[in-house]
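My main concern about presentation is that the manuscript never shows what a single data entry looks like. In essence, backbone conformation is discretised, so a fold becomes a row of integers matching the chain in length. An entry of this sort, consisting of the sequence and the corresponding backbone structure tokens, reads as follows:
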Amino acid sequence: MSVTTETTGAGAAAGAGAIVDLKGLWIGAAALNIFYLIVRIYEQIFGWRAGLDSFAPEFQTYWLSILWTEIPLELVSGLGLAGYLWKTRDRNLAAITPREELRRYVVLLQWLTVYGVAIYWGASFFTEQDGTWHMTVIRDTDFTPWHIIEFYMSYPIYSIIAVGAFFYAKTRIPYFSKGYSLAFLVVAIGPFMIIPNVGLNEWGHTFWFMEELFVAPLHWGFVFFGWMALGVFGVVLQILGGIKNLLGKDGVTALIG
């Protein structure tokens, strides 16, 4: 889907061509959803069959092999994405046209939408699923099948997308390039901090033998850092403010009138 403005008297909205092209959004959201549906089917097949005994050979084959593959792959992917966005940054942001800046704001909104999809799968779906698993099965390892998917797959994936969105804004949009948006830092860093909090969680369960209750104090860190994803609303307000400044009163009227 693409939207083309037809007005010629509204500054940033003037000109030919598409300002809004949602192809990247649909591809990103579809890829995430399809990938996680495949992962869920895999869990359904091999969770009970090969995931109950961490000392069994099939556990090594079907679960630990995923763990040892995903961690270095995610690290390389995150560093590679940040490095690519930085290397290809716009070195003359003062020269971009208002129309191009508006297009980049739209692209950033698409980044954040895909990030929201990733946050749902990681911090909601797989997290609730993990709680159900703990209440059903007595675990004999910190690296349970559900932890391997939740902590070491879905959390890094949404963190990588957040880093990508942050670097895209920092390197391509004048407003975000001039300093550091506190709201954006909260969004990018806050939910990522759930990953090191996993270490505290596993240490506590190992030494205190706590019951697996979501309301246990040991789990408060997950809630604290997870809710930092709500900082995305602050980022969206900054984006909308930038768009409003680009369009001006006449441009807003032309687009919504």
Residues 27 and 137 are 37 Å apart (CA to CA).
